[in-house]
Write a structure and sequence with these properties.
Largest sheet: 4 strands, mixed
Strand content: 15-25%
Number of domains: 1
CATH superfamily: Glutaredoxin
Strand order of the largest sheet: 4-3-5-6
Helix content: 25-40%
CATH architecture: 3-Layer(aba) Sandwich
């Protein structure tokens, strides 16, 4: 099994298979527009711009499970990201990352790269999962890990 086995809805509501990213290095992130970590959008966009030509993509998944910090509609979320941070990496429909209603992709990511002390729960917005070109989850990064500090790990996989 790999991340390529999952389908998700784009932020425009169109179902798509992650198989379309086969062969790319991915950074999959649960995002929120009203979080203390929201400025990380800027760093994520920089990573995307610097490495997309080498087969890298950031995939953003808005989530409202942490402090209700992503209350907007898909349109509002995308407008916020574009206007405030120039985001043009792929964004997807709002989903849950924890609990019974968690999207299967995030259940898979969390089981493949547990957090501290083996915890499978995602602790907060801007948890990041680095995926290699074969669709395998390589590493989980905490919300406090800034995108700039992840760049060396991305470069190793590219």
């Amino acid at each position: 099994m790999s991340v390529y086995d999952f389908s998700v809805d784009t932020i425009k509501g169109e179902e798509t298979s992650l198989n379309k990213y086969k062969g790319d290095v991915l950074l999959i992130v649960n995002t929120a527009s009203k979080c203390g970590f929201t400025p990380q959008y800027q760093g994520l966009q920089s990573l995307y711009e610097n490495h997309k030509e080498k087969g890298f993509s950031v995939l953003g998944f808005p989530c409202n499970q942490f402090g209700a910090q992503e209350p907007g509609t898909s349109g509002e979320i995308m407008e916020f990201c574009e206007l405030n941070y120039g985001v043009n990496f792929p964004m997807f429909a709002k989903l849950n990352v924890n609990g019974d209603d968690a999207h299967p992709l995030f259940k898979y990511l969390a089981s493949e790269a547990p957090g501290i002390l083996g915890s499978k729960a995602i602790k907060w917005n801007f948890t990041k999962f680095l995926v290699d070109r074969d669709g395998r989850v390589v590493k989980r990064f905490a919300p406090t890990d800034k995108p700039e500090t992840i760049e060396k790990h991305i470069q190793e996989l590219l």
